[in-house]
Specification:
mainly beta, 38 strands, 504 residues
């Protein structure tokens, strides 16, 4: 990109920068990371939209909403939304503060601002009959395909904005049937909707809202293009499964910034789930300046990888607690490439057995989902200036069916120390039936297997006090070619091992 192009790019909005970056990333003359750099070089050049000027207000109270938290207000909301969508000018659907509104499914439309004003709160209904069904072709009971629907949906809406300082209460406990003390999580009942399923939307903004206690996925962006998620707060319950924070799924040109996420399941997870329709690849997604606390992965790609996922950047994030700090799980036929993690801190630890992850600092794996599965390839991944504490290794592990290649770990620093009482000396390969889901394994600082052309540059391994016997080498490599170690600080966990690096 020459100077003139950069200057021109700085005059565009951030959303256009994302779209421009996607187009440039495909050009041979510009690497994907250069395209991202051009975005980062011009932050905040144009003020974010604060609402359409002189918008006509469609107040849900004037369309019959009771706002008492007991009367179902879905019909009144839908009347206001439909009227706003039919208006020929700028329109805002206003949900006034000072009230609680009980809703089942409401469908948002394009070119409106759905605004939760002040302390307005949406309470999602616990009755199945208050929700529409899920995506066409989905099977009842398949929660991951949105068969159970969602509280807030949109389909092919263009120019939709969801704004305001109000909140959405998901009432997760009321969708659970029991608590499993041994496994330390809630067992879901037969019905639990998602909070949002926004499908095929373009020019979409979600800004400033809070949602809490999601009984299932939180903000599901399926097949969307041109999305800004800014300053969203997620306050899900840490012991409820599948309550992901934000899920860009088959989506492109997405920016997620300044979000604060607490969720039992993955914080931000980029994926391509198996769907009855083809929603395309995931590409050009930028996640930055977020704070995450979870019992699963903090920043993740996968496990659903049915289409290509590429040109993804995660940066300047803090992962306060997770079962894995950074995670890529390739299990299906799509390819994952041109991935960048930078300037991230993490704390990773063990949780009870059902939670995926065994405290890995970083886990990049390419393993077939089934014995006959043929996963794509995982390659060209860069991790730069990432540091934290963990109970388990930095792991780069392919398989005979899918070798990982071209991975650079640059200034990655990890301190390994056992901080919980859960059993250690394990790697977590789930979900897979091709190999053991839980694999007995020693705990090196960096574990490289079935991988080619991996570079460790100026990396550091430190060991906490009284390392267990399973803690081993600073670097352990098996069935690996082209491994480069360019500056390594740290030795083995136990002097008796005699060397920092073991290559088999």
């Amino acid at each position: 990109m020459n100077r003139t192009q950069v200057d021109d790019a700085r005059l565009t909005t951030r959303r256009n920068l994302l779209k421009t970056g996607a187009a440039l990333a495909g050009a041979a003359a510009l690497s994907p990371l250069d395209a991202f750099a051009s975005q980062s070089a011009a932050p905040e050049q144009s003020a974010p939209r604060t609402g359409p000027p002189q918008a006509k207000i469609f107040d849900v109270m004037k369309y019959g909403a009771a706002g008492d938290g007991k009367t179902l207000d879905s019909a009144a909301f839908q009347c206001a939304i439909d009227a706003a969508a039919a208006y020929s000018g700028s329109a805002q659907v206003l949900v006034p503060g000072g009230h609680k509104y009980l809703i089942g499914t409401i469908e948002l439309k394009g070119a409106i601002d759905f605004h939760l004003d002040g302390d307005a709160q949406l309470l999602i209904s616990t009755r199945r009959e208050d929700y529409r069904g899920g995506l066409p072709g989905s099977v009842d009971g398949d929660t991951m395909s949105a068969a159970l629907g969602a509280a807030i949906i949109a389909n092919r809406a263009h120019g939709l904005r969801i704004t305001g300082t109000g909140n959405i209460q998901g009432r997760a406990h009321e969708f659970m049937k029991s608590y499993d003390k041994t496994n330390q999580w809630w067992i879901p009942g037969p019905f639990r909707p998602k909070m949002f399923v926004l499908t095929g939307c373009t020019d979409l903004e979600v800004r400033d809202i809070t949602f809490a206690e999601a009984p299932n996925w939180g903000l599901h962006l399926l097949g969307c293009d041109g999305v800004l998620v800014d300053n969203v707060k997620v306050r899900n319950l840490l012991d409820v499964p599948n309550c992901d924070g934000i899920d860009p799924d088959h989506s492109r040109n997405v920016e997620i910034r300044n979000c604060n996420i607490v969720s039992g399941d993955d914080g931000v997870v980029v994926k391509c789930s198996r769907q009855p329709a083809d929603y395309g690849e995931c590409a050009n997604i930028h996640v930055h300046d977020c704070v995450i606390e979870t019992q699963d992965a903090g920043l993740k790609i996968g496990t659903e990888t049915t289409s290509d996922i590429h040109d993804i950047r995660f940066e300047r994030c803090q992962i306060k607690s997770a079962s894995r700090g950074l995670c890529i799980q390739l299990r299906d036929e799509g390819n994952i490439f041109n991935i960048d993690f930078r300037d991230i801190t993490f704390h990773s630890r063990f949780f009870a057995d059902p939670w995926w992850g065994r405290g890995e600092a970083i886990s990049f794996t390419a393993i077939p989902r089934t014995p006959t599965g043929k996963p794509g390839t995982l390659h060209h991944v860069n991790v730069q200036n990432v540091s934290g504490t963990a109970e388990n290794s930095v792991r780069v592990c392919g398989s005979p069916q899918s070798r990982i290649h071209d991975v650079t770990l640059d200034r990655v620093s990890v301190t390994l120390e056992r901080t919980t009482k859960f059993p250690g000396a394990l790697f977590d390969n789930r979900p897979t039936t091709a190999v053991p889901g839980i694999e007995p394994h020693d705990t090196p600082g960096f574990s490289i297997e079935y991988a080619d052309d991996v570079t460790l540059r100026d990396c550091t391994v430190a060991w906490g006090a009284n390392p267990p016997d399973a803690f081993s080498y600073a670097v352990e490599a098996k069935d690996t070619t082209g491994l480069k170690i360019e500056g390594l600080t740290g030795g083995p966990a136990h002097p008796a091992l005699g060397k920092a690096v073991s290559i088999v």
